[in-house]
Each structure stands twice: as C-alpha cells, then as structure tokens.
Amino acid sequence: MYAPPGGKTNHNEFPIPDSQRAWVLGEPGQLSITTKPVPVPKKAEVLVRIDAVAICATDLEIIYHGPPASIQGGLPFNKNFTPGHEYMGTVVALGAGVDEYKIGTRVAVEIHAGCGQCKRCREGMYTSCHNYGLNYGDVDKGHRANGFTTDGGFCEYQVNSINTLVPIPNEMSDEEGTLVVTAGTGCGQSARCPTSDPDGHARQSS
Ligand SMILES: [Zn+2]
Ligand SMILES: [Zn+2]
C-alpha cells in the first residue's frame, strides 16, 4: 500500500493508488497517456491529488517547441516528462515531519521551489534560483519547477514543497483555484512594475 516513509496518509478518506495515469511528452507536439508511479513526498513535501489543471499558453510553447522547459539539462522531448504548471488539488499525504498542512486541505500550487541555499533563494528570489533546473542524475540541488524542470500537473498526483502551497476557501471552485497562482503572478508583476502606483494599480498612460 502507498506509504511515504515517516509520513502520513488517510487511506479511508483519501485512498492513494501506487500508480497513476499521466500525460507524457514524446516528440514535439505529441502527448500520450501512460502509467507512472505515484510520487512519494519527502521531508517538507506533500502529495497533492490534482483536482483541476489549466492549460497555459506556455504549456503549448513547451509541448510544441521545448523551452522554457528544461529536463535533464536539455529539451523536454522523449524524457518521460509530464508538463502542466497551473493546477490545484487536495493534500492527501504528508512527507516526514510535515505538520504545516492537514490531509484534506484544498490548495493552489505555486510553480517554483528554490534550492533554499543559493544567494538568490536566501534573499527570497527563489524563482531566479542559481541552481535552476539542477535536479537530475547525480546532481540534486533541490530546485523544482512543476512542468518546467520537473514533472507537472497533467496527471493525477504530484508532490509539492510545503513552501509552494496556498490553502483556498471552500467557496472557490477547483477551476478558479487553478488560476490563483497565475493571477498572483500578474499582481506581483504589477506591484513591482515602475509603471504602477504603490498599490500595484497600473498607471494610466497619457
Ligand atoms: Zn502558466
Ligand atoms: Zn536557489
């Protein structure tokens, strides 16, 4: 039975299979459905049952052309790679030591988990992690970017760092929940952009 070492599950309420259906990218433009193991959360990670996933224009860019995805340091084709970065779901298993989330919590999922050890991560700029994409072969700096450098959400279950989760209210639908991070990206850009006022509203151009 699926059981993360040292972690927690609740198979009565949220049964977890050992394998799942997942879309994988073959040649450019070719997605096919296959079976993959359900990933196991490590320390500071949870398993998310994916309840909804959006298809972003960037997903289409990746599927047809490759970049900005980078798998094993190169193009994402024929590497058993699962795209998808705009998803939400329900926490169904906790990695060892995780008490920040409860099983059954609905969450929106942020794309990036920085390595946590480079200068940029330590300054909070983890989306520009110096160890971006270094997580294959003998190298694993801990950086993750769902659907860009690691498997994403075009499947049934995915692991995520607890630092990349945002609980969402029950009034919010699954479909709306998939767009929380996308909306947050736009708001964040607007707040930092020199053409916006201090509240983050874009200035009227004259
Ligand atoms: Zn997107
Ligand atoms: Zn880093």
List the defining traits of the structure above.
single chain, 206 residues, alpha+beta, Quinone Oxidoreductase, Chain A, domain 1, six-stranded antiparallel sheet, two-stranded antiparallel sheet, 4 helices, globular, binds zinc ion
Characterization of this structure:
With 206 residues, the protein is α+β, with helices and mostly antiparallel strands. It has a single domain (8-111, 146-190), classed as Medium-chain alcohol dehydrogenases, catalytic domain (Quinone Oxidoreductase, Chain A, domain 1, Alpha-Beta Complex), CATH 3.90.180.10. 15% of the residues lie in helices and 27% in strands. The chain contains four helices and twelve strands, in the order E-E-E-E-H-E-E-E-H-E-E-E-E-E-H-H. The chain has helices at residues 57-65, 119-122, 174-177, 180-192, and strands at residues 8-9, 19-25, 31-37, 45-54, 86-94, 106-109, 112-113, 135-136, 139-140, 144-145, 157-161, 165-167. Strands 1, 4, 5, 6, 11 and 12 form a six-stranded antiparallel beta sheet that branches. A hairpin with a 2-residue loop joins strand 8 (135-136) and strand 9. The longest helix has 13 residues, at 180-192. It is globular, with a radius of gyration of 17 Å. The mean pLDDT is 91. One zinc ion binds at residues 114-115, 118, 120-121, 126, 129-131.
Tell me the structural class: alpha+beta
DSSP strand tally: 12
Distance between the termini: 63 Å
Query: Which class in CATH terms?
Result: Alpha Beta
| Helix run count | 4
Main sheet summary: 6 strands, antiparallel
CATH architecture call: Alpha-Beta Complex
CATH topology: Quinone Oxidoreductase, Chain A, domain 1
Low-pLDDT ranges:
none
- Quaternary organisation of the protein chains: single chain
Question: How do the SSEs run, as a string of H and E?
Answer: EEEEHEEEHEEEEEHH
Shape: globular
- Radius of gyration over C-alpha positions, nearest whole angstrom: 17 Å
CATH superfamily: Medium-chain alcohol dehydrogenases, catalytic domain
Number of domains: 1
